[in-house]
Amino acid sequence: MSGTESPVLAVLCGDKHPPDMEPIEQMAAVRYTDADGLADALRDADALFVYDFLSSAVPDAWHAANRLRWLHIASAGVDPVMFPGLRDSDVVLTNSRGVFDNSIAEYVLGQILAFAKDFARSVKLQSERTWLHRESERIQDRSAVVIGTGPIGRAIARLLRAAGMSVAGAGRTPREGDADFGTVHASGNLGEWIGEYDYVVAVAPLTEQTKGMFDTRAFDAMKDDARFINVGRGELVVTGDLVAALGSGHIAGAALDVFDIEPLPAESPLWTMDNVHVSPHMSGDFVGWRNALVGVFADNFRRWHAGRPLVNIVDKQLGYVPSSG
C-alpha cells in the first residue's frame, strides 16, 4: 500500500480476539467484528483478516467491501472464502500455509501407529481390567500414499519415510523422482493405483475437482486391509460411501479429523464404529497455534504496509497456493 493515512483493517474473529495484535493496532485502524457486524466492518476497509477461519460470513457481507484490496485467512484451506465475488475481484487472497505442516504430519504418524499397535483396544481393555495378549503390526516397509503434494503432504511424507514406511504421493501432475514422494500419481486417476497402498492419507485442498473424490469407486479400489486417514477437508469424502465401506469390512479402518458436517452429528454411525478414530478437527492444533497464525498474518501485514510482495498468495482459480505439486 502507499500513502500516509493508516489503513483500515477488519478482523473477523467472533468473541475471541486474536492474540498478539498490538503491533498491528499501532499501524492500522483495526475493527474487530463477529459475523453479524462484518458488513459494517468491511465498509471502507482496506484489508480483511479472517481469523475465524471456519466462518461462512464473508460471502454474505461481500457487498460492503467497497475498498478492499487484500484478504488473509488464518488457515491453509481457503474454501470458506472461495466464492465467485472474491474469485472475480482484484482482491489479493493469502493463507496461512506452513503453520500446521509438522503437527499434522505427527498426527498422521500417530494414527498409523495407533492402528498398527491397536492402541484403542488396549485402552478399552484397560478400562475393563482385562489382560489380553495380542500381536501387533509393524509399520516398517508398509506403504502409504499421500494425496495432496503441498507443504503439509510433503511433511507427512518425510515423517512417514523416516519411520520406515514406503511413501508415494498424488497430485495434479504425475511424475517420478520427486524429492519427498518418489512417485507422484495423477490424483484424477486414483482408482488405477490406490489399491497398491496400506494407508491412504487425504490432505488435498477442496476444489471442484477434489470434492467427493473418495466415493464408493475409490473405496472399492482400495485394499481390504487398508486404512484411510483424512486430514484435508470433510467434503473430499462421500460420507455415506465411507460408512458403507467400513461397515462391510471392505476397508479396515479410518482416522477422521474432518467431516462434511462439523461438529459430527451425534447420530452419525462413525462415532460407534470400532474401526474408526474420530477427532474434532484438531490434527494441526498444537499449543500456541493461534499465536503462530497471527504471526504469519503480522509478517504479511508488514509486507503489505511497506509495499513489499506478499507471501502465500492463493491462485483464486486453483483454490490454493501453487507449488511444484
Describe the structure.
With 325 residues, the chain is an alpha/beta fold. The protein has two domains: 8-99 and 287-306, NAD(P)-binding Rossmann-like Domain (Rossmann fold, 3-Layer(aba) Sandwich), CATH 3.40.50; 101-278, 3-Layer(aba) Sandwich (Rossmann fold). 27% of the residues lie in helices and 17% in strands. The strands form two sheets. It has an eight-stranded mixed beta sheet, covered by helices on one side. α5 crosses α7. The two termini are 31 Å apart. The model has no long low-confidence stretch (mean pLDDT 96). This is D-2-hydroxyacid dehydrogenase. GO terms for molecular function: NAD binding; oxidoreductase activity, acting on the CH-OH group of donors, NAD or NADP as acceptor. Residues 110-283 form the D-isomer specific 2-hydroxyacid dehydrogenase NAD-binding domain.
Helix content, binned percent: 25-40%
Radius of gyration: 21 Å
* Structural class by SSE content: alpha/beta
Proportion of strand residues: 15-25%
Low-pLDDT segments: none
* Topology, number of strands: 13
At the first level of CATH, the class of the largest domain is Alpha Beta
Largest sheet properties? 8 strands, mixed
Order of helices and strands: EHEHEHEHEHHEHEEEEHEHEEH
Number of domains: 2
First-to-last CA distance: 31 Å
- Give the averaged pLDDT, no decimals: 96
Strand order of the largest sheet: 8-9-7-6-10-11-12-13
Total DSSP helices:
10
The CATH topology annotation of the largest domain reads as Rossmann fold
CATH homologous superfamily heading of the largest domain: NAD(P)-binding Rossmann-like Domain
Oligomer: single chain
Keywords: NAD, Oxidoreductase
Pfam family, one: 2-Hacid_dh_C
Protein name: D-2-hydroxyacid dehydrogenase
Family: Belongs to the D-isomer specific 2-hydroxyacid dehydrogenase family.
